[in-house]
Write a structure and sequence with these properties.
The chain contains ten helices and ten strands. By secondary structure, it is an alpha/beta fold. An eight-stranded parallel β-sheet has the order 3-4-5-6-7-8-9-10. A two-stranded antiparallel ribbon has the order 1-2. The longest helix has 15 residues. Keywords: NADP, Oxidoreductase.
Length: 280
């Protein structure tokens, strides 16, 4: 279990990844610049974006400003992006990666993911990611929104096992099967939408536990992720929220707290179902 913003988890290729970071889904380029800058100033070292978000330029500028203001080096950060792989062959995936790298203004990525399985639209892109990784342009490669059967299909032909599977995950969608399969194969689970797009912030069960610990509902939910060894990347554009989201390392949920929160799991999604979302 990580114990600070800079604590890291060892991936299956021996690369270390921070267990807590900032997500920028649905954040404009302009707002992304400030969010990333303020996150780095607050001590964050992990930033997660994607080609389809349209804000990689904002992430790059935010990184530049954050590094200048803090004196940190690029090597201290862990930057993730994702390829929107719909209809992409091997060569197009390579081009998409190079475009993202140029837009971010970076020389390499720490982690690059295939964004969605689609209708099994990931085998050629994965081969491209493997070669990019082997060439040293990416430190680690993984996938996003893959169900267990997608992972099995990929592993049948993959030369390299994904290090990460980033999926919708929160107390109402705990993804037990995916987490168990990932643990068996050495694929770490990472949560997007950990706060269920805010829908869990007024949950009575969460609020009761929050009152007991004198913490916010968001802090309780994020702590639940951490204590379940799930990498988590909450999104925020407000500096106060960016800072408060990270103030979860000074308390611990009890076994009883965790059990109560676990009972909220009913499989409710706020995002698309990977088995039916085919980019249409």
């Amino acid at each position: 279990m990580i114990r600070s913003l800079t604590d890291k988890i060892l991936l299956n290729n021996k690369v270390e990844m921070p267990g807590f970071g900032l997500g920028v889904f649905q954040v404009s380029n302009e707002n992304t610049v400030l969010s990333v800058q303020k996150a780095i100033e607050a001590g964050y070292v992990s930033i997660d974006t994607a080609q389809i978000y349209g804000n990689e330029a904002g992430v790059g500028e935010g990184i530049k400003r954050g590094l200048t203001l803090t004196g940190k080096k690029r090597e201290e950060l862990f930057i993730t992006s994702k390829v929107w792989n719909h209809g992409l062959n091997y060569d197009q995936t390579i081009t998409a990666f190079n475009d993202s790298l140029a837009t971010l203004g970076l020389d390499y990525l720490d982690l690059y993911l295939i964004h969605w399985p689609g209708d099994n639209e990931f085998l050629e892109p994965w081969a491209a990611l493997e070669d990019l990784y082997l060439s040293g342009k990416i430190k680690a490669i993984g996938v996003s929104n893959f169900e267990v059967h997608h992972l099995k299909t990929l592993l049948d032909t993959a030369k390299i096992t994904p290090v990460i599977n980033q999926v919708e995950l929160h107390p109402r969608m705990a993804q037990k099967e995916i987490r168990a399969f990932g643990k068996e194969k050495g694929i770490i689970t990472e949560a997007w939408s950990p706060l269920m797009q805010g829908q869990l912030l007024e949950d009575e069960t969460i609020l009761k536990i929050a009152a007991k610990h004198n913490k916010s509902a968001a802090q309780i939910i994020l702590r639940w992720h951490i204590q379940n060894d799930i990498i988590v990347i909450p999104k925020s554009v407000k500096e106060s929220r960016i800072r408060s989201n990270a103030e979860i390392f000074d308390f611990e949920l009890s076994t009883e707290d965790l059990a109560v929160i676990n009972q909220l799991d009913d499989g409710t999604r706020v995002g698309p179902n990977p088995d039916t979302f085919f980019f249409k």
